[in-house]
Specification:
heterodimer; A: 118 residues; mainly beta; 7-stranded mixed beta sheet; 4-stranded antiparallel beta sheet; 11 strands; B: mainly beta; 50% strand; globular
């Protein structure tokens, strides 16, 4: 069974940093691109970033986080990360890690809340 | 960026009704169009990908159709567990985008 579990969320002040992690089981990690998707309270879904199959792989970001967030992976540890710097109030959201299959997200973690507030 | 516009934004229907949700793209998405269902406090669940392929384990009352810039999700006979918010999504080109969502209420 495919499982993805996020950790590392919490409350952080504007301008601060936070690192999210996602670990998974049930599939060959290095067979899949991976992604982070977020959802602000009461709002819709917003794609944040993708990374291709390899460690140090090709990365893509939504414009609003490019230069502030960094997606990375460690295939040996079945781990995906999102380093978030210079956080803003508008980054407050539940962050989901997701597995990519073809051009869609077929498995999702349960989500982790990030709150940016003073 | 490719914008996805869903209609309606909200619908209320009876158990057994046929329900259709439309997703219009601002430009062609090469059928890289997926549909998700999300219940409150839960992660989205993939229903349809490639515009019309049913994800494994999803009931056959769900179906997807369309091509180019106009796509539909149909629930042939609405069930009580089908409440929630439905989103379309494209990754034909970056950035990946989602529709704004359609909230479905079961009367």
């Amino acid at each position: 069974e495919v499982q993805l579990v996020e950790s590392g969320g919490g409350l952080v002040q504007p301008g601060g940093s936070l690192r999210l992690s996602c670990v998974w089981s049930g599939f060959m990690f290095d067979d899949h691109w991976m992604a982070w998707v977020r959802q602000a309270p009461g709002k819709g879904l917003e794609w944040v970033a993708n990374i291709n199959k390899q460690d140090e792989g090709e990365q893509f970001y939504v414009d609003s986080v490019r230069g502030r967030f960094t997606i990375s992976r460690d295939n040996a540890k079945n781990s995906l990360s999102l380093q978030m710097n210079s956080l803003r109030a508008e980054d407050t959201a539940v962050y989901f890690c997701a597995r990519i299959y073809l051009r869609h997200f077929d498995y999702w973690g349960q989500g982790i809340l990030v709150t940016v507030s003073s | 960026d490719i914008q996805l516009t869903q209609s309606p934004s909200f619908l209320s229907a009876f158990v057994g009704d046929r329900v259709t949700i439309t997703c219009r793209a601002s430009q062609g998405v090469n059928n890289y169009l997926a549909w998700y269902q999300q219940n409150p406090g839960r992660a989205p669940k993939l229903l349809i990908y490639g515009a019309s392929t049913l994800q494994r384990g999803v009931p056959s009352r769900f179906s997807g159709s369309g091509s180019g810039t106009e796509f539909t999700l149909t629930i042939s006979s609405l069930q009580p567990e089908d409440f929630g918010t439905y989103y379309c999504q494209q990754l034909s080109s970056y950035p990946a985008t989602f529709g704004q969502g359609t909230k479905v209420e079961v009367k």
